Amino acid sequence: MCLAVPGRVLDIGEKDGTRMATVDFGGVQKEVCLEYLPDLQVGEYAIVHVGFALQRLDEESARQTLALFEELGMLQEEFGDPWEQAAAQAGGDSPWPFAEGPYAGEAAAPREAQEGRQ
Which of 9, 51, 83, 96 is the 20 to 30 A CA-CA neighbour of 90? Predict the structure, then answer.
């Protein structure tokens, strides 16, 4: 699922001619494009969707929304490690294939290839 998440602008710069910012989403920092909000300043909050700041937001609304997302586990879903999430859903502890068992330490290749069969 892709959410529009409020975040606080930490710093602003330019990358390849595009105005960009580092934005904090409740502890997770991502690079965000500011082309749709060219006057957004450091310390302000914005709603961000798929890497673009789309709308300015007041601090109280941003904090309430982030708290709700955190409570519902939606920040982890949106920003968490997809390998860890897949392992948790599968009931395993390790997100890495072949971390245990007869293929421990081997690359995640098709089992036939690992056994020498093609």
Answer: 51
